[in-house]
Amino acid sequence: MRLNVTGTVAGHADVDGVSVYGTGPAFHGRARPGDNFYVDTSFEYSLTTRWVLATDVVYSHNESTHVTGVDQPSGPLGLSLPVRMKSGSSDTVGYAPAVEYSWTPNIGVLLGVRVLAGGHNTQRSVTPAIAINYVH
User: Fold this and answer.
1) What domain range includes position 36?
2) 81 pLDDT band (50/70/90 cuts)?
3) What is the bridge-based pairing of β-strands 90-102 and 107-116?
4) Is the N end or the C end of the chain the one with fewer CB atoms within 10 Å?
5) Contact 90/32 with Cβ under 8 angstroms?
């Protein structure tokens, strides 16, 4: 069993023009991505020396991203328009069941799927997973 608890504290970024934050070409300001809290726990059960069942269970919370600044559209008046945007916070819960097979104590393969059940401001998703394990 494994438990991982992580938190991140975001700084700010100066933004000029079009960005991933939804700003336009005449925007000047800054963005502050929201802080994050993440918990991941993993369980494994050895059926034999070669076969292992595994699953991860995850939870993630992201605070709202804030964007502030001015939009200076071109035109005869040249007015600066104040901009204030918030993305809203988000939460998601997911799990990732898998089967591991090891040919030797050093080489194996993992086949599984990651399922994010969705949540507040997040989408559901299912992602297949495959990994080659090599321990040296």
Assistant:
1) 2-134
2) confident
3) antiparallel
4) C
5) no
pTM strictly above 0.70: yes
At 51 the three-state DSSP class reads strand
Q: Report residue 33 as tokens.
A: 């991505």
The Cα–Cα gap between 22 and 90 comes to 18
Give the length of the chain.
Answer: 136
Ramachandran class of 106: left when φ > 0, alpha when ψ lies in -120 to 50, beta otherwise: alpha
CA distance 104 to 136: 12
How many C-beta atoms surround the C-beta of residue 65 within 10 A? 19
CA distance readout (Å), 134 to 104, 111, 113: 10, 15, 20
Distance CA 136, CA 133 (A): 10
Beta partners for residue 111, in sequence order: 99, 130
38-71 residue pLDDT tens: 999 999 999 999 999 999 999 999 999 999 999 8
Cβ-based neighbours of 119, under 8 Å, separated by 6 or more: 90, 91, 92, 93
